[in-house]
TrEMBL record:
It comes from Seriola lalandi dorsalis. Keywords: Endoplasmic reticulum, Hydrolase, Lipid metabolism, Membrane, Nucleus, Transmembrane, Transmembrane helix. One of its GO terms (molecular function) is sphingosine-1-phosphate phosphatase activity. This is Polyisoprenoid diphosphate/phosphate phosphohydrolase PLPP6. Its EC number is 3.6.1.68.
Length: 243
């Protein structure tokens, strides 16, 4: 028969053995989990590397676009760093809206004294309508949502369009500026004012966080090219009318 001391020693050995086996089991499980997680990270990294270079570059550029646009939105709300000049920036924004341009163009067209003045205003009215159509088509195709800061603005919920790309103000500013420089402006000081106005209207869209930088940049290029399209269409219409 075994003594009580030997029994206690055997029980302690059994407990220690079971404890060590459970610890080894836990360690094995932990090591297996860590290995599987590292394997998953390796798979994710390899999947990201296996993506086409064009996709990686595009995502990188969009990330830069998002970061720069967020930095420039200093007048997005009253609590923004430059929130005190927000009313002035919104006034500049309104100067590039389509409503005052259409109203002023139609008024000048109806009040024109000569055929040349009416022809210029008619071309501008057609250019504004063409700009509205093309911008709407591109926005519907791309469907890029506006920045979150713009969507949080109460007034923008009712008066600002849902989609962001391209900026309609930027296209209109570039097109109208080129139109004015080619048709009406003939002095150097007025040319500087027209170009400066187009730049301020485009900048206001970024300061108010209405658009991303790529929206405004593409809008300026698009508006500049629209003027050439309007010129060709007007020339063809005049040739058909007087042929």
């Amino acid at each position: 028969m075994s003594s009580p001391a030997s029994r206690r020693n055997s029980c302690r050995g059994t407990a220690c053995g079971s404890r060590s086996s459970s610890e080894c089991h836990v360690r094995r499980r932990g090591s297996s989990c860590s290995y599987s997680s590292s394997g998953a990270q390796t798979e994710d990294f390899s999947a990201s590397v296996s993506q086409p270079m064009f996709t990686i570059t595009l995502r990188f550029l969009l990330a830069i676009d998002l970061w720069v646009s967020k930095r420039l939105g200093v007048c997005a709300c009253e609590e923004s760093p430059w929130g005190s000049i927000r009313p002035l920036v919104r006034l500049v924004e309104f100067s590039g809206h389509v409503i005052p341009w259409l109203v002023g163009t139609l008024y000048t067209l109806l009040r024109g004294e000569t055929v040349a003045e009416q022809e210029i205003m008619l071309n501008l009215a057609l250019a504004l309508l063409l700009d509205l159509l093309l911008v709407r088509v591109v926005k519907t195709l791309v469907r890029r949502r506006r920045p979150a800061q713009s969507r949080s603005d109460i007034l923008s919920t009712f008066f600002v369009e849902r989609y962001s790309f391209p900026s309609g103000h930027a296209t209109r500013a570039a097109m109208c500026a080129r139109f004015l420089l080619a048709q009406l402006v003939d002095t150097a000081s007025m040319r500087v004012l027209v170009v400066g106005w187009a730049a301020l209207v485009s900048l206001s869209r970024l300061l108010l966080a209405r658009h991303y930088v790529t929206d405004v940049g593409f809008g300026l290029v698009m508006g500049y090219c629209q003027y050439g399209l309007v010129e060709r269409l007007c020339d063809k219409m005049l040739k058909l009318l007087f042929a």
